[in-house]
Amino acid sequence: MRFVDEFRRPELIAKTGDEIRRLADPDRHYRFMEVCGGHTHAIYRFGLKDLLPPNIELVHGPGCPVCVLPMGRIDDGLSMAERPEVIFTAFGDMMRVPGTRGSPLEYKARGMDVRIVYSPADALKLAMANPDRHVMFFAIGFETTAPSTALTLKRAREMDVKNFSVFCNHVTIIPAIRAILDSPDMRLDAFIGPGHVSTVIGCRPYEWIARNEGKPIAVSGFEPLDILQAVVMLLRQLKDGEVKVENQYNRVVPWEGNRAALKAIGEVFQLRPYFEWRGLGFISQSALRIRDEYAAWDAERRFAVPGVRVTDPKAAQCGEVLKGVLKPAQCKLFGKECTPEHPIGALMVSSEGSCAAYYTFEHRKAAVGVPAAGIPAAGIQ
Amino acid sequence: MCLAIPGRIVELLPGDPPLATVEVLGVRRRVDLGLLDEQDPGRLGDWVLIHVGFAMSKISEEYATEQLRLLEALGEAEAAATEVRGYDQEVT
Amino acid sequence: MTGAPRKVRFRDTQVEMAHGAGGKASRRLVEGLFAPILFGSSTEPLGDAAHLSINGTRVAVTTDSFVVRPLRFPGGSIGELAVNGTVNDLAVSGARAVALVVSYVLEAGLATEVLEAEIRAMADAAARAGVMIAGGDTKVVEHGKADGMYITTSGVGRAIPELNISPKRVQVGDQVILSGPIGDHGITILLARGELDLEADLHSDTRSVLPFIEALARAAGDGVHWMRDPTRGGVATSLNELALDCGLAIVIEEEKIPVRDSVRGACELLGLDPLHIANEGQFLAVVARDAAGAALQALHQTPGGECATLLGEIAAQPAGAVVVKTLYGGSRIVDMLVGDPLPRIC
Question: Do C74 and C148 reside in the same domain of the chain?
Fold first, then answer.
């Protein structure tokens, strides 16, 4: 597979692993946060922790748009599915996420019309093919996905498709990173930056992390060589005392971002004054809502949603795991009450949530005495 | 947020919005090219990064090749330095 | 090494779709609800077919239901699945299918030509598989039920004398063989539903695997310790079931997993793992180390078995788990499916 297989070449991976070992100071313990859930998934899928020396610790960040969605918002979306004329559409990632009275898949099992789509464009197409029904698209995602929703809304308006609406839960990545850095328990040395969000926002938005917070950041792709090369970049910066933003994923990420995508976002969306992030609390200017010109396609305005806040059980420590303060296995509910089959918190539901990834890929190794790689044996937390 | 795959434009579809058929290992999907730069639109044979049915960006073959070259060169600088140090020791 | 099935309790208050997906939830339903009531205190691991002795003759019997949408898809249809599926269950349990009986639940309003096409498909598949359809039953339910039709086939067969299959026979050092490329069937069905707007040159791999099992029996006989057909839940689920049943570890090598390009492409696009995707014409065999060479050769010489490959082997640790090793020294645990595999965008 072109532009994929070359970045999985074993001999280059070995070389990059050697370079990492050469650069890492044996007397230092490094904590690098990968912000994006897709990186978390890739790290586990490719077994990359096995290739890092034990003094490099990868901390999983909050970049999982499913994980940070409060249960109340899921209930709001599902309340629309209860209307007989509505076809509820969403990405596959949303289908098993539990609301108070069940997940979208469970609503489907109870007879409501719930369908998976691969693209918001498919949801619009469904609306055009079913004029007597109303298609509601449950939009999630960071800036990577927002432009696609924006273009779809533009097309819906241009074609005056009346039976289509979007329930907008798009969130933005910078406030999440700020929340991490503002957290008093946080001790991070550097960041592996989100590669695909950056195809839209570019690398400039991260400059304050280097300049004001003094942390190096390498915007990284998702193949094994990408992530390992990003680690090399961070180690080099730390060794040389440099602090800057680097673009490891330059074959795809433009430094200035994607102007057309940013323009589409600006035309269709505006920032909400504040939005609740599951586990992180209310964050101002961190989420998108649909502009007034597109109100007719805004599901929140077309349908009255309950808007009830649902708090997580006190015992669930999703917030601390999201911020990387706790490892998944350190949450009291992990592996017992909370498993991928019976998730209590969203970090266990989404396959890229730290807890689900850890559970699926690592937990069983640890349970039988194989030490999880990348975590220092001498309990430095 | 993060699942985006490289694919090749194998067919440009007429009309507006600008759509194309993009192929990944023989699997074909209609993809919207509306997020690509108007100044540098998608052409037949171009490689693009696909996310939820939209092309997010074109893939630069040049940068990809350069990146692999850099990685291949890893360890060579170190090896060269070791060799030089070896000569120094021999001479002194 | 014996592995009695773990004590499992079924606590769910209602049946969910996940219980039919062939993964963890299905296993819990069967082990926690059905097995204790129907099989009492038996500690025999649950297999693909039941082997019984009737007046000294070893006989195998099994049953399977077929629920698929759409009814027809590239490479086959529900009728073919219904025949091959049961023939295969018997085959991987170590038995040669002799006869099937079939029961149809038909939806009122189903077009006769659709029904006739499936009956013909079953007749053809049975002829190809060398099995007789001995009888059957039909029921009709109201329009809106049965997705057109549901088919259940039950099969009876004769135990293949050279074979003695049981997870208890699996030992450290045994080799894991896979018959061919994975994911063809599941991805074909996913694409055929038309919801994802993907096109590929792919078809279901549905076929009888009996000829391969017979070749294995002749070449390796007693050296074949375990077999399974990785249908719903894929290779990952079948191997996890074995790991739990025998209490050992299964270590497979990523680059040995055979996947067609188009299956790989679809899985990458949708964020799916080929190891979790259903197959309808493949099987896994765990074979004693010294018999593996002969086993592979026999498969390669059987038409349709050219792609059979060595996937990995049985190890002692991590017990009860399936580990995939990458070419460059990384590894990951592959778990059983929780519910149906869902496409993802994150």
Answer: yes
Residues 184 to 223 of C: which have CB under 8 A from any B CB? 197-201
- We report the CATH number of the domain holding residue C76 as 3.30.1330.10
C198/C128 same-domain check? no
The 3-state DSSP class for residue A162 equals coil
C110 with C91, same domain: the answer is yes
> Is residue C20 a part of any domain in this protein?
no
What is the ipTM score, two decimals?
A: 0.91
| Cβ–Cβ contact A346 with C under 8 A | no
Last residue of a domain, one of C124, C142, C159: C159
- Identify the band that residue A326 occupies on the pLDDT scale cut at 50, 70 and 90: confident
Q: Which domain holds residue C82?
A: 48-159
Tokens of residue A90, six digits: 């969403």
Interface list for C 105-124 with A (CB within 8 A): none
Same-domain status, A289 and A346? no
Q: pLDDT tier at A342 (50, 70, 90 boundaries)?
A: confident
Quote the strand ranges of C233-305, DSSP E.
249-253, 284-287
Instruction: Assess whether C329 and C249 both reside in one domain.
Output: yes
What CA–CA distance (Å, rounded) separates C47 from C60? 11
Q: Residues near C190 by Cβ (< 8 Å), separated by ≥ 6?
A: C196, C266, C270
Chain C contact for B30 (CB, 8 A cutoff): yes
Provide the domain limits for residue A16.
Answer: 1-314
pLDDT for res A344: 83
Long-range contacts formed by C266-269: CB under 8 A, 24+ apart? C266/B27, C266/C187, C266/C190, C266/C191, C266/C198, C266/C200, C266/C202, C267/C183, C267/C187, C268/A1, C268/A4, C268/B5, C268/B24, C268/B25, C269/B5, C269/B24, C269/B27, C269/B29, C269/B50, C269/C198
> Stretch C321-345: mean pLDDT, rounded?
87
State whether A222 and B2 contact (CB < 8 Å): yes
The class that CATH gives domain B1-59 is mainly beta
Residue A282, domain member (yes or no): yes
Q: Does A352 touch chain C (CB under 8 A)?
A: yes
Is the same domain home to C261 and C280? yes
Residue C219 and residue C223: Cα distance in Å, rounded? 9
Asked if C199's CB is within 8 angstroms of B27's CB, the reply is yes
Closest CA to C144 of C105, C192, C113, C116: C105
CA angle A219, C272, B23 (to 5 degrees): 75
Answer yes or no: do C246 and C325 share one domain.
yes
Chain C residue numbers with beta carbons less than 8 Å from the beta carbon of B2 are: 346
Structural Rg of chain C based on CA atoms: 19
Q: Are residues C180 and C300 in the same domain?
A: yes
CB pair distance less than 8 Å for B51 and C268: no
Is residue A72 within 8 angstroms of chain B, CB to CB?
no
Residue B14 contacts by C-beta under 8 Å, 6 or more apart in sequence?
A: none
C343 in B contact zone (CB under 8 Å): no
Residues A347 and A263 in one domain: no
Interface with B, mutate which of C187, C188, C195, C199 (most B CBs under 10 A): C199
Contact yes or no for A15 and B75 at CB 8 A: yes
Please tell me if residue B43 touches chain C, with a CB cutoff of 8 Å.
no
Tell me the per-residue pLDDT of C140-180, one tens digit each, with 9 for 90 and over.
Answer: 999 988 889 999 999 999 999 999 999 999 999 999 999 99
Within 8 A of B52 by CB-CB distance, chain C residues are 345
The answer to whether the beta carbons of residues C244 and C320 sit under 8 Å apart is: yes
In this structure, are C178 and C308 located in the same domain? Answer: yes
- Chains sharing 3 or more CB pairs under 8 A with chain C: A, B
Beta carbons of C223 and C288 less than 8 angstroms apart: yes
Last residue of some domain: C97, C127, C159?
A: C159
